[in-house]
Each structure stands twice: as structure tokens, then as C-alpha cells.
Amino acid sequence: MPNLEHPAYPAATLLHLESLVPCRESQVSMLLSIFGERQQFSFPSIFIYGHTSSGKTYVMQTLLNTLQLPHVFVNCVEYFTSRLLLEEILIQLQSCSSETEQTSRVPCDNFNDFVRLFKQAVVSRELQDQTLYIVLDRAEQLREMEANILPAFLRLQELTDRNVTVVLLSEIVWELFRPNTGCFEPLTLYFPDYSIGHLQKILSQNHPPEYSADFYAAYINILLGVFYMVCRDLKELQHLAALNFSKYCEPVVRGEANERDTRKLWKNIEPHLKKAMQTVYLREISSSQWERLQRDDGEPGQLKGLSAHTHVELPYYSKFLLIAAYLASYNPVRTDKRFFLKHHGKIRKTNFMKKHEKTSNHLLGPKPFPLDRLLAILYSIVDNRVAPTANIFSQITSLVTLQLLSVVGHNDQLDGPRYKCTVSLDFIRAIARTVNFDIIKYLYDFL
Amino acid sequence: MSTCSVSKGCFVFKPSPKKRKLSQKTVNYFRERNNASEDTDVRFVTCQSLWNQIKLETEQIQEDLNKQLFDNLVSFLRQSHSEFQEKTTEWTCRMKSREIPTAALVLGVNVTDHDLTFRSLSEVLQNNITPYIALLEAKDCPGIKNLMQKLMGQLMNCYIDVDSLEDEDHMQVSQNKIRCSMTSIISWYQNVTKKTDSETPSKKRTSSSRHWQSPPVVVIFKDMESFTTKVLQDFIVISSQHIHELPLVLVFGIATSPMIIHSLLPHSVSSLLCIELFQSLSCKEHLSTIIDKLLLTAQFPFKLGEKVLQVLINIFLYHDFSVQNFIKGFQLCIVEHFYSQPLSVLCCPLVDAKKRVNSLSHDQCENIRRLPSFRRYVENQASEKQILLLTADNFLKEITQKLLEDLYVYHENYVSVLRCLHVFTSSLPKYPLGKQIRELHCACLENRVWETEEYESSLQLARMLNKSDLVTMLQQCVEIFVSSSGKEFDKTIEKLKEFLTQFQELEVAEAFQEQDGSVSAQKELQKKTDLYHLQKTLLELKESRRSKKLTKFEMLRFEVVDYVDSLVRTYLVPADHKTLHEIMYFNTASVLRGHLNAAPRVALHTALNNPYCYLKNQALKSDGGNISNKAPDICIVYKLHLECGRLINLVDWLEAFSTVVTAVEGPNTDAASSDQVDDIIHARFIRAVSELELLGFIKPSKQKTDHVARLTWGGC
């Protein structure tokens, strides 16, 4: 018995639609009932939200395409200014409908023009008898455009006086959209995450032609067992499934096991998938490298991932500048005397520190420091005399462009610039080791 | 004329520099300081030709070093869109999400060198893969809009480059109208590729011989670290949606570590990429090669003195890691040498130098006589010869020719022996003479290397080398000498080969001996079972071992080391002990340091603290701490402010200032003016203080009224 029923559309089409959108039948039937029949006016704006890859875009696209409803589909990330966005909608409106020659592009600077041009386009197409759908994917981008764009889209039906429905797709909730000045409230619709059963069902649907559906379903089952904990992204899972399937089939191809020998197949694939989780899933190595490894039967150990290359080689004084910056960022100012003066006397940590300093500075993060303090520390930690040459100052700027330091406040502030050190403890320890500097001895937190 | 801009506007087109005119000007500059008798023109020409040679050489080196990296990149780019070419419909290809192929190019922190690398990279790609390359810099792309504009501008321009010129006007017009979005890039791309398909067959062949039907579009992010996260994310998200229509390849130029990708991009975005890592050669290795090919060779007559080389290397190692800067510094040395040393006219290949010696003017001969090294030489000669050298120009020229020849031979030998010594020292534990050949080179240039402690200890260590190491080193040395151009090394090679054969003989002999020795010792031990006797024999064995005569191997080893030592003593004499070394060697490190490692703060401090240093006015010559009232006001104010703390009271400062200024006139001024500051002095003070503020020494403070904050501390 088909779940989807609607008097306006033929049953065969609906059946086909249903097969295309597994696990989203209830949402689709809901949408269909909101849409109504082709000529009927629908709700002016619909807001659909749900987590990444919960099928929002896919469902909308298949729905509109299979039922052959007139629509415009725009991604708001791609058309990053309101002008681009509006023009794109008009272009799609012109091109998708009439198969006539490309009309010259009309500039559309603001929403007022858009409404006017939109009316023209709809009239010229004689589309009044059908609802036109404008789908705005990644609608959260609309908030960064001019303030009137979002409210205007929400009541486009009213503004243009045409049979049009705007559908907004987003990953965040409507509450974060609502402008201060108030606006027309759209109909919100939530797409829940796919459950593990759903994922299993959807992923097993597209099995390779050479193998049976059961065989592939068993594979998906194993795959989900490994990856479901860390990744519920359908696209990513599908990608991983395709990447590792050839390895799964290996025993079968070699004739060591038949398709029903699930245990043997599991033993073969499980460690492989775990390795994939640590490498290719994190994009430590690329998918093509992974495939090459699989083909050559190599060990992934021999291919170093991106995070294995943490070592950064720096010029000698840059290293010391970075160390000085780190010390300045993580030590309280008062302790400089104790660390860098020769006859500082013995100061015990317990009675030396104030109440708020009892928490570790490393937990609080780096603090900004002025340039002078950086240089003062630099002069006292470098053994030989450092001349304050232009090179030293340019090195500080280089460290900023390398994102190892960051400027606090305005970039163009020339008097008394302040910096922060943004590197991690491990990184600075590795740097300090190369210049034989025991940084732990100089850090207040480790006193 | 075309621009890469997509917007309308007024563009300045600088005329392409006229080479001739420029060089003429520089000649004049050369001439300015020196009188014409000192061959300025010849010197300038020599300098130019030498620099051109060196430039070619460095470019060649760079190319060779990058070859491996570029080959890898090119093959990666070839593969990256092979699926796009074949349009496979296989199941796996359909199921896999299409990732954007991305090359993470780790180039090291020497950002100044990257430009050249990227330029040659884009050249290589243009020749091998695709005409569609866009180079993006972070400073041009603060937002996604600017990025797209820049990208489109560069892509469409390169299209013009490929196509014939007649289309240019047409493109120019349409460019201004085109919307900067991905769709327009895609339609442009389809247009372009379609056009190449439908071109006339003859034309098509030429284009397809280099590129495919649908060449990838390569977008290079020059400085990944400086891009804002949002721009990168948006761009990647947008382009990943169109990867099916537009075969895009990204290249990330990374200066620090590839970890930056993960810290800049969230997982949802980085999962759209298919990142492969490429690492360029480290800049230190690059420098070693440059030094090897430019300095440790007899090919170029120009040489760097020890101090100058040390300055250049220090700047490299301590400050910037930039090979380009090193080469620039080297260029500066060349120019400075030819500019300041009149005798540098002889700093050219030997054949030319000999000819030039003959045509030297009398002034130049006098210049030669004035050279310290030549004077030393003269002092060691017999008295008649001394007179001849100092009076007869012709005799001097003859001798000079001979001396120059000596110098050339010395260079040739020096390099080979230095390499040979490096073979020994580079394998010693703890590297007493340095790991790199450049350190050894500096040590040898500085003074007699065999008199240093490090040399002594390295010889000690060399005397403890084992046989196999020693043999391989000797073989390496033989290779070095064979390939060297020096003529005196036939004997050396023979000697070394002799050592090698002796070692081989030893091996055979030892095998016999060892068997005998061990067996006999064993037997003796077995014979004496008595404890007392056993002890005695063991003691005896020990004694004999201590005072034992050296084995044959040890003897030979000593011989080898001594021989190497003798080579060093004959050939690695420091250059400044050689006569006429001033002609070839540039040794004024202070000039170089002043140019390359400027200390603006120190200079400013000297200028303000000791104005005599720059103004050269006798009245300003001060004997130390006291403040002269003849100095410019700003100097007085500066000196006074040095005595203050972080916050300076303006009233006190003004009083001190007026005291100093009126100090000398003091006796004859009346008492009335002492408590009331003169208006003129007041104005002078205000001007000086604002000048100090302009220079960045103080700034107005809001913490206390009538106070300014000091921005500097310490002496400089």
C-alpha cells in the first residue's frame, strides 16, 4: 500500500517518488498536502530545517522534479550578494520555462526591481495557473545580506500577487533567523536525522550490479557498525562505502570465501575499516591515496598523514621570538622579574601568587602582551647580544602572517602593538628543544 | 592594452624598461666617484657579465631543485581529473562523492622565495597541463566576492593569451558585463573548451599536443595561512557543487605545516577535498647547493671573504631563511666590489686578466703597489727586486701576471682539497669542524685551519676511524681529485690509490694472522691450568697489549691521516695570506651589514644621542654624558627624556630643557628670566616634543594630566 496519496497526481508518479525518497515519506506527504494541487495557492513561505545531510535538498529536488512542478533552485552560498541571488532567480525563471532564445540579462539591483521583473517573467510565461516554487538552499546566508531580503522573500506571494511559494532550506532553527523588526512567520518543517535503520536502508539501496543486494547490505551493516559512532553524514558514509567495498570483495574474488561467509568477510574488513576511520575519514590521507594503497596492498603506516608533518623549521631568532612570545603570553607580568633577573631571590609560588592566578594559565589561554615585553624577554633568553635590527622586527611580522602570533586590536596601530602567541605547548616545546632551551623551567604554570 | 581587472577604470601602463638607457645610467653612476683612469667602464661591463652568468647559474640550480617537486605535481594534476576525461559510469565512481583534488604544497617559512617558485610552477603547468591557472593572494581576497573577481579576471585573461588577438576587443567588452559567479566561469569554460574542439584541425593539433580536450582549471592559493576561513570555506563549498562541470584543482601554498588545513577548515568542508601533500626541498639544502655551485668553484673569479660570507649566512640562518635574499646579498657584494675596488678590473677569467694587466695605467700600477698583500710580498723579496717592483711598471705587470696565475691555481686546488677534507670531517662524531662544507670553508678562510683546536681534535678522531669507513672515504677523495681540474693532483691520486691497495693487502694478511694469533693464544691458555700461572700469563698478555707495537692497519691509518694533514697544510692556506687576494675577494663586511641588516633604532638613537656622528659639526663633539646646548633641540629633549621613567611630566621636562638651553648664556642673563620661561624657548620645546612624538618615542597619556608616556626603554 503506498503511503503517498494525493488526488492531483497520478498514482504511478507518486509510487516512483516514494521509491526515490526512502525514509522521508511522511515529510513528503506533508509537503504534498501543503502544496495542494497545481493551480491552488500554497502557503507563502515554508521553512525546512534539519541537520546536515538529512535529505532536505535532495527531497525538495526530487519532489519538484518528479512531479514536474515549475521551480527555481538557488544556493545562497553560491550567490553571495543579494544582487547575484536575485538575478540568478530571474535567469532561471527565464531559461527553465520557455525554450526561447536567451534574453539579454536584466540588471536587478534591489528587491523592488526584482518584484517588477518577477511579475513580467511570470506573465510572459503564463504561469499563473500553477504554483511556482522558489527554493533557497543554505538560507542562513540570507541573514548576511541586506536586512530587507529575508522578510521580503517570506511574503513574496503578497508582494508580487502571484502564485508563488518560497521554500527556505537551512541547518539552523527558525528562531535564529527572526529579524528584530518582525516578519511574516513561515511554516516550519523539521527533517529529523536518519536513524541507523534508515541509514542501513538507504545505503543498501544502491548496490553494485555485480553483487547481490543481500551481500551489499551485509557490508553496509559492518560499515555502519564501525562508523556510526563517529559519522552520521549520509554522503560521507556513502563515499566511505564505495571506497572500501573493493577490499570487502577481495576474499570473494580470490575464491577464499563465498558471498554468505559473513564471518570471514567481517574478519577481513573490520581492521581495514578501523584504519580508514583514523586516516581517510579524517582526511589525513586523501581518498585517491587510500585507493592506491588498497590496490597495492600497502600498509597505511608508510604513508604519513597531514598531521604527521607538524614540524616547522624556523630561523634561529624566529624560534627565540616565538619562545619569548609564548612566555609573555602564558606568564603573568609580575613573574618576569623572577624568571629573567639574575638576583631575583627565592620567591615561593604559594605566597607569590594572587588568588585568580591559581588557575592554570594554560587553561585560560594566551594573554596579549606589548612589543616591548616581547623584546625584553627575547634579549634575556638569547645568549649572545641581539641587535635590534630591522630584520628582527620584520620577523615578528612574518610570524604574524604565518599565524604563529596574532595581533590584538587594530592592525594599523603603530604605537604599542600587542600580540598573542597562538601556538600550542607541544609545538613550542619541540621548537625549544631544537635550540636547547628548557622552556618548562621558565613557565609559571610548571613551577 | 589589456588589464587583468574586471572593472572599468583608469590604468597606468608603464613603458617597458629600456635596457640600454638604464645601463648607461648605471655606468655613469659607476664613473661618478672614480676618475676615468681606473677603467670604470671595463669594470662595469665585467661586473654585468659576471652577474649575468651567476644569475643564469642560480636559475638553473633553482630549476633543477624544483624539478622533482614539479614532476610530482604535474603527475598529480594529470591523474586528478582523469575520471572527468573518461566520464566513467562505473558503480564506484558514481557512488563516491566527487572531491576537489587538492595539492597541499608545503614550501617552508621562507615566504620571500615562494614567489619565484610559484612563477616557475605556473610556467611548468602552462607548458604541460593547462593554460587556465589563477594565482590568488590573501591580500587581494578579503571577501568571496573579491576572490571570484580576481579568479575570473585571471582566468579570462589567460584565455586571451591562448587565443588569437582579434578576439581581444570582444572579450574586453563582455568582461565588464559578466557577473562574477561560478556559473559565468562555467559557461566561459564550456565556451573555451568547445571552441578548441571546433577549431580548424591544424590549429587543434598544436593545442592538443600540450593540453587535453578539457584541461583542468588550477587555482593556486599562494599563502594559505593568511586567507580568512570564511572565504576559503565558501569558495570550496561553491566549487564542490560544480565540480562536475568544471574540473577544478586547488593548490594550497603552505608556509608552516599542513595542519593549518585542518585548523582553517572544518571537517564538513575538508571532506569535500581530496588532499595530497607535496613537500618542497628545505631551504637549507637549497642554500648548500647554491654555496656549492657559486662559491666552491673555480668557475667564477669573484670570491667572498670570510667575514662577508659569515654575514650572509648569518642573515640566512638567523633571520629569514630566504635563498633569494642570499643571492641578492651576493649580488650586492659583486656590485660593491667592482664599484669600490679599482683593481677589480682584473677580477675576470685568467686569460682576460693577463691581457688587462698589460694595458694597466700607471695609476693602477700604483694601486697594486698600495695593496697590503702586495707590500708584504715586496718585503720578502731581494732588495734589487724590490726596487724594480716599486719603480718599473713593466716588471710589476709581469710579476702581477704570475701572481694572478698562482692565485688561480690556488683556487682550483683549494676547492678539491676542501671537499676532500670535508669527506673526513663530516663523518666524525660531534662534527668538530662542522657538518656542512660551508662551515669548513669559513674556518679555512678565517685563519690557518691546522692551527685551530677543532682541527687538532678532528685529526685525533680521524685516527680512530675504522677500516671500512676509511676506505670509502679514500675512494671518495680519489673521485674528487679525479674530477677536479687541478693539474697537480696526479701524484696525490696515485698516493691515495696506493693507500687503497695497501688496505686491501692488509685485509688478506690479517685474515691469516688472526687465525694464527688466536689459536696460539688459546693453546697457551689451555696449557696452564694452574691459577698462579694463569694470572701471570693474563697479566703478561695485558702488558704486551698495552705496549704492543702498532698493527699494520694502525700504522697505515696514521700515514693516511698524516698525508691528509699535509695536503691541508699545503693547499688550504687562508686566502688573505695570498698576494693580490684583494682583487678577487670582497671583504668589507661592515658595508654589507649596513646595507642588509639595518638597525633603524640604533641609528636613530645615535643620531639623537650623538648628533656629531651625522652632522660632523665640531661644536657638537661631546666628551660623553653632558648635554651640549649647541645640539639641535630634539637631541636635547631626547637626552633629557632618557632620564625619565615611563611617564614624563611635561613641566619638569620644559624646565630642564630651558636650563640646558640657557646654561652657557647663564652668567650674563638676568635673574628675572630664570623663573619665567622664555616664549621662544617654550615654542622650541613644544616643537621638539612633537617631533619626538612623530618619531614614536612618546605619546600623549590619559593616565595623568600634563604627562606623556614613553614608548621606548633602555639605551636603544
From TrEMBL, chain A:
InterPro entries: AAA_16, ORC5, ORC5_C, ORC5_lid, P-loop_NTPase
Pfam families on file: AAA_16 (PF13191), ORC5_C (PF14630), ORC5_lid (PF21639)
MF term (GO), any: DNA replication origin binding
Entry annotated with the keyword DNA repair: no
SUPFAM superfamilies: P-loop containing nucleoside triphosphate hydrolases (SSF52540)
Protein keywords: ATP-binding, DNA replication, Nucleotide-binding, Nucleus
Chain ranges of the Orc1-like AAA ATPase domain: 21-167
Annotated Origin recognition complex subunit 5 C-terminal domain residues: 314-443
Biological process annotations from GO: DNA replication initiation
Domain ORC5 lid: 216-283
Subcellular location: Nucleus
An annotated GO cellular component: nuclear origin of replication recognition complex
Assembly and interaction partners: Component of ORC, a complex composed of at least 6 subunits: ORC1, ORC2, ORC3, ORC4, ORC5 and ORC6. ORC is regulated in a cell-cycle dependent manner. It is sequentially assembled at the exit from anaphase of mitosis and disassembled as cells enter S phase.
Recorded family membership: Belongs to the ORC5 family.
Function text: Component of the origin recognition complex (ORC) that binds origins of replication. DNA-binding is ATP-dependent. The specific DNA sequences that define origins of replication have not been identified yet. ORC is required to assemble the pre-replication complex necessary to initiate DNA replication.
Protein name: Origin recognition complex subunit 5
Source organism of this protein record: Patagioenas fasciata monilis
Organism placement in taxonomy: Eukaryota, Metazoa, Chordata, Craniata, Vertebrata
From TrEMBL, chain B:
Predominant location category: nucleus
One GO BP: DNA replication initiation
Compartmental location: Nucleus
InterPro entries: ORC3, ORC3_ins, ORC3_N, ORC_WH_C
Membrane-spanning parts: none
Ranges where the Origin recognition complex subunit 3 N-terminal domain occurs: 1-346
GO cellular component: DNA replication preinitiation complex; nuclear origin of replication recognition complex; nuclear pre-replicative complex
Key words, A-Z: DNA replication, DNA-binding, Nucleus, Phosphoprotein
Gene Ontology MF terms in the entry: DNA replication origin binding
Limits of the Origin recognition complex subunit 3 winged helix C-terminal domain: 601-713
Quaternary structure note: Component of ORC, a complex composed of at least 6 subunits: ORC1, ORC2, ORC3, ORC4, ORC5 and ORC6. ORC is regulated in a cell-cycle dependent manner. It is sequentially assembled at the exit from anaphase of mitosis and disassembled as cells enter S phase.
Family indicated by similarity: Belongs to the ORC3 family.
Its job: Component of the origin recognition complex (ORC) that binds origins of replication. DNA-binding is ATP-dependent. The specific DNA sequences that define origins of replication have not been identified yet. ORC is required to assemble the pre-replication complex necessary to initiate DNA replication. Binds histone H3 and H4 trimethylation marks H3K9me3, H3K27me3 and H4K20me3.
Protein name: Origin recognition complex subunit 3
Organism: Patagioenas fasciata monilis
